[in-house]
Structures are given as structure tokens and as C-alpha cells.
Inverse folding.
């Protein structure tokens, strides 16, 4: 694995992108912060812990899904991916670099929500470590989903609509901002298709907000591995 390339790419396409386009950062935070405010007002603060934990997952998920637009644009429009195909870099270098860049781009939102977690005594050091590990799995899962979407597209004109729909489904319909146990079991089983659902179930249980479900972490890991395998196939890395 070319660590130097991964670090340089994630710096230029993650950290420097925040400096060049702060409006994109604000846009990525708009929906989670709006939902946080609404949930706080409507629930009288009772559901604030859910909204803070869900906000972190929502930011990471949305940014990773939106990566489908970048991956499709690089492959179909400007042929940027072809440069890497013709170089000594492997597709794992490229995929890891993009994944890292989306994580870096999400860092301001993560820091904001982690700060809120400590202010409202929802987080401690151990819980923060667990949260970061789950965030890594979510970033990997949905970035690979983005590669799958980009690989299936033949034209980029549809990608923004697809990513917007998937982002809403993944972050609003799933039990990200509210307790998972209020959802009918049959519907919850359907929502488990999305990696953010087992991640939310695990974190809500681990943080003591809901009954702990031990099966949620194995489901998240299995889905992450499955999406990595599919993303590796659909990226269409051809010489």
C-alpha cells in the first residue's frame, strides 16, 4: 500500500478542500444540526443523546455516499482515474485514499459533535474510542457503496439525484436520531440492510440509551466486508 500517496491525496482532497470550499462543509453540517435542533426542541432535550450520536454517523455517512459523485466524475468525465490506472498505484491505494479524504473532510463535524458529547456528559474517553472505531467502519462501508454506485453508472447526470436520495434514506429513515426499539421488528430487519442501522443499534446500547444488542456489531462488520468486496469489483479498474 502506497502510504505516501494516500496521505497526500487525503490532505489535498480532504483538508485543503475544506479551505477551498467551506460552503460544502457548511452544507454537510446543515441537515444534522437542523435535526439536532428540532429533536432537542420537540423532545424537551430527552432525545438529545440520540441526536448527538446520530449526528456523527449522519455526517460521515452523507459525505461518504456523496463520494459516488466524485468517483463517477473522476472515471467518466475527466478520466482522472485513468491516470492512476496507468501508474504503479493499485486500486486499493486509490480506494483507500478516497476513503481517507472523506474521513478527513468529516473531521470538523466529528469534532463538533464530540465536543457536544463531552459538554452534555454523553461521552468519555472509552466511549470516544468506541465511537471512532464505529465511524471508521461506517466510512469504509459507505465509501465502498459510493464506488459501487459510481461503477454502475454510465453517465454522471444521474449521480447527484441518486446520492441525495440514498443519503436521506440512510440518515433519516434509519434509527440514527431516535431509539431503534420503537421501530416495528419487521421494518427494523429491512433497515438492517444499511450499515448505519447496526452501527446506531450498537452505539445506543453501548451508551446505555437502549437495550444492548450483541448481534449488531457482527452484522456491521459483515456488511462492511461485503461492501468492500463489491466496491473492489465495481470500481472498474481497467488498463
Amino acid at each position: 500500500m502506497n502510504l505516501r500517496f494516500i496521505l497526500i491525496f487525503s490532505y489535498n482532497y480532504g483538508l485543503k478542500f475544506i479551505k477551498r470550499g467551506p460552503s460544502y462543509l457548511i452544507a454537510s453540517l446543515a441537515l444534522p444540526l437542523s435535526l439536532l435542533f428540532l429533536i432537542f426542541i420537540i423532545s424537551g432535550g430527552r432525545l438529545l443523546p440520540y441526536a448527538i450520536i446520530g449526528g456523527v454517523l449522519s455526517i460521515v455517512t452523507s459525505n461518504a455516499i456523496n463520494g459516488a459523485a466524485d468517483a463517477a466524475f473522476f472515471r467518466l468525465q475527466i478520466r482522472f482515474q485513468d491516470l492512476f490506472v496507468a501508474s504503479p498505484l493499485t486500486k486499493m491505494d486509490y480506494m483507500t485514499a478516497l476513503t481517507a479524504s472523506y474521513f478527513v473532510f468529516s473531521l470538523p463535524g466529528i469534532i463538533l459533535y464530540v465536543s457536544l458529547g463531552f459538554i452534555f456528559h454523553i461521552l468519555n474517553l472509552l466511549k470516544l474510542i468506541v465511537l471512532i472505531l464505529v465511524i471508521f467502519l461506517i466510512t469504509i462501508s459507505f465509501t465502498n457503496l459510493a464506488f459501487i454506485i459510481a461503477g454502475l453508472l454510465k453517465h454522471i447526470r444521474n449521480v447527484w439525484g441518486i446520492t441525495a436520495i440514498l443519503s436521506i434514506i440512510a440518515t433519516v429513515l434509519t434509527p440514527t436520531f431516535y431509539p431503534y426499539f420503537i421501530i416495528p421488528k419487521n421494518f427494523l430487519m429491512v433497515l438492517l440492510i444499511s450499515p448505519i442501522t447496526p452501527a446506531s443499534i450498537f452505539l445506543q446500547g453501548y451508551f446505555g440509551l437502549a437495550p444492548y444488542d450483541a448481534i449488531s456489531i457482527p452484522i456491521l462488520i459483515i456488511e462492511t466486508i461485503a461492501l468492500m468486496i463489491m466496491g473492489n469489483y465495481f470500481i472498474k479498474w481497467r488498463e
In short: The chain is about 75% helix and 0% strand.
